[in-house]
Design a protein that fits this description.
The chain has 257 residues and is an all-beta fold. The protein has a domain of 103 residues. The strands form seven sheets. A four-stranded antiparallel β-sheet has the order 3-4-5-6, with no helix packed on it. A four-stranded antiparallel β-sheet has the order 7-8-9-10, with no helix packed on it. The protein is globular, with a radius of gyration of 19 Å. It starts with a strand and ends in a 7-residue tail after the last strand.
Length: 257
């Protein structure tokens, strides 16, 4: 297992190796940033930890002890929500049954708080979602699992159902992973390179709108997707047996009022 981690300074255009995670190896691993610290989470690893917290000031890792066995997850959604990290879904064992439970982890206090299951979406592994600044959105098309989507408010510890994209974003039958969405202009953008289709979710109106397919990115799996501040950038991805280095920009229509 590789435990080498580096940081990148875009101003200086420089990479710097930081201390490794020896002693706290977890796999599969997810990395989030909260309270000016790196939080590495995954299934239970060495020393009973299910991850570690990185302090840039000390260039050191501290193991994260789970409150119980349900906090360590395989293929869970791990999202930074400001000062805490949201961990939801996944499975408790390799190839185990999916769960619809979650936790909020505070790296400063080193505390875990369970999230409510009342109104939570159906259990799933490799869930797809993001943080809007006020809530976590989890989405799922109709043919992928139960096809239900929901939004979680960490301050109120409450879930509310939201519209799903229906069959429009049903993934390729050869895919078992939903694309990672991007957030911008108070909307969520989903582009699935395996089916060459995308959609925009408007939170304020709870509705999905399909993206134009004119001039859309070519067929490829798992491209990187990011919001630039005014456009959605789709770059790279895998086509047949090789990686690609092409990119596209999507200009969305103005948000509805």
């Amino acid at each position: 297992m590789f435990d080498l981690i580096s940081t990148y300074d875009p101003v200086a255009d420089k990479w710097t190796d930081i201390s490794d995670t020896s002693g706290y190896d977890v796999w599969p691993r997810k990395l989030a940033w909260a309270s000016d610290m790196g939080v590495l989470l995954g299934a239970k690893g060495a020393n009973g930890a299910c991850g570690a917290v990185y302090s840039p000031a000390k260039d050191a890792w501290t193991g994260i002890k789970p409150p119980d066995s349900t906090a360590c997850r395989y293929e869970a959604l791990v999202v930074s929500i400001g000062a805490r990290v949201f961990v939801w879904g996944g499975a408790l064992e390799p190839n185990g049954s999916a769960v619809n439970t979650g936790w909020l982890y505070d790296p400063v206090a080193d505390t875990w708080t369970p999230t409510t299951t009342k109104g939570a979406p159906s259990a799933r592994t490799k869930p797809s979602g993001l943080w809007t600044g006020t809530e976590v959105i989890l989405w799922e098309p109709s043919s992928f699992g139960a096809g239900d989507s929901a939004s979680y408010d960490p301050d109120a510890d409450s879930w509310r159902p939201i519209a799903s994209p229906g069959p429009a974003l049903d993934p390729s039958p050869f895919s078992n992973v939903l694309p990672t969405p991007a957030w911008g202009d108070d909307r969520m953008y989903v582009w699935d390179g395996s089916i060459q289709k995308g959609a925009v979710y408007d939170v304020s109106h709870d509705e999905w709108t399909m993206m134009s397919e004119i001039g859309a990115p070519l067929h490829r799996a798992n491209p990187a997707v990011i919001w630039t501040g005014s456009e959605l950038m789709v770059w790279g991805g895998r086509y047949l047996y090789g990686e690609t280095n092409e990119g596209w920009l999507y200009s969305p229509p103005p948000a509805k009022k």
